[in-house]
Design a protein that fits this description.
Helix content is about 50%, strand content about 15%. It is α/β, with parallel strands linked by helices and about 210 residues long.
């Protein structure tokens, strides 16, 4: 039976500087799907009533101290008031938003442990995009307008945080092949051809 194209979900994990964001956007256009990266934070904030900046501050970062955060709600009608939330509460809000978005139609999610959150859904493809360190360093240098040493420092710090966050919440290993359906090096084919490769994989998997 042909899979309903409207319900295809593509979850994209990515190394910093690998072009995962751009590839995700291209996939969303290719499959007429909604794209969620930082957009997910805005939606989670709106649906939870919390300020978006708190989701941004804790985005893909895991606080192992698990200290309570005193966060204001953003409901203008009721005014601001205080409530205690842990990092896990943010993850729950974000996960609920992912599930709701996935129910509405085709989506491409970048990061945020979406592959784990949607693990019970049969209509998902989980992809990890890697690239050579040279490629990633050059991408970060261009984007951040920094030198090579700073770019490598940003990559190391960013990927350490992503891995800790992903491993903690999923029980899997970030970036390891067994955690995904497809892993691809974008520095070999370039971003556009990598997107085409992933799109072909999705179409073959679901007989589209």
């Amino acid at each position: 039976m042909t899979q309903d194209k409207k319900h295809i979900i593509i979850n994209v994990g990515r190394q910093l500087g690998s072009g995962g964001h751009d590839i995700g956007r291209m996939l969303a256009l290719d499959f007429n799907a909604r794209y969620y990266d930082r957009e997910l934070l805005a939606r989670a904030a709106q649906e939870s009533g919390l300020s978006q900046r708190y989701f941004e501050q804790h985005d893909e970062h895991k606080s192992f101290l698990r200290s309570l955060l005193h966060l204001p709600f953003g409901n203008a009608a009721s005014g601001y008031y205080k409530a205690d939330f842990t990092q896990d509460a943010f993850f729950k809000f974000q996960s609920d938003t992912i599930l709701k978005a996935a129910d509405e139609g085709a989506c491409v999610f970048v990061g945020r442990c979406a592959d784990y959150v949607l693990r019970e859904r049969p209509n998902t493809v989980n992809v990890f995009i890697t690239a050579s360190l040279k490629f990633r360093t050059e991408q970060v240098m261009a984007k951040k307008q920094c030198d090579e040493a700073m770019a490598r420092k940003l990559i190391e710090q960013g990927e350490s945080q992503r891995a800790a966050y992903y491993n903690y919440y999923t029980g899997k290993r970030w970036g390891h092949a067994e955690s995904y359906d497809l892993c691809v090096d974008s520095s070999i084919l370039g971003l556009q051809q990598t997107e085409k490769l992933i799109a072909d994989f999705v179409r073959h998997r679901f007989d589209l």
